[in-house]
Amino acid sequence: MPYATTDDLADYISPAPSNAALLLTRASRLVDRALLCAVYDVDEQGQPTDPKVAKALREATCEQVAAWDEGGETGTGAADQYSNVSIGSVALGRAGGGSAGGGRSAAEDLCPQAVMILQQAGLTGHEPRTRTYC
């Protein structure tokens, strides 16, 4: 379930992309990965119950989609695969940072604004909780 709605996204991108719902779902997955060890209360649907946490997740998700929109990314990583493409006499050039070239694509990492929002909300930098038995 995405952390933001298409109406939320409209505050970041105007007009919102036609595939906004899909982009918000993909961006929410990235946010979830960044929150792997974060601890916060959720409701039955897995959504945060603290309004400050909900706001941070919503804003981080929208910032991620806005960054993808600027860079022509769709959350799949496909935009990073080739930097130059020609059809006549075929000339393909790999993009420097794409997953096909061995680096990470823009679809694999949160954009700086999204990371900052999560950090400022205290949702990142947590280690896994472990229990020791004596």
Structural class: mainly alpha
- Count of alpha/pi helices: 4
SSE string, helices as H and strands as E: HHHEEH
Q: Mind summarizing the main beta sheet? A: 2 strands, antiparallel
What is the number of E strands?
2
Looking at the structure, what is the overall shape? globular
Mean pLDDT: 83
Low-confidence runs: 97-102
- N→C terminal distance: 40 Å
The fraction of residues assigned to DSSP E strands is 5-15%
Helix content: 25-40%
Q: Widest sheet: strand order?
A: 1-2
Q: Supply Rg.
A: 17 Å
Task: Give structural notes.
- With 134 residues, this protein is mainly alpha-helical.
- It has a domain at 6-78 and 106-120.
- It is 37% helix and 7% strand.
- It is built from 4 helices and 2 strands, in the order αααββα.
- The chain has helices spanning 6-9, 20-34, 51-71, 112-120, and strands at 82-86, 91-94.
- It has a two-stranded antiparallel sheet with strand order 1-2.
- α2 crosses α3 (51-71).
- The longest helix is centred in the middle third of the chain and has 21 residues, at 51-71.
- The N and C termini lie far apart (40 Å).
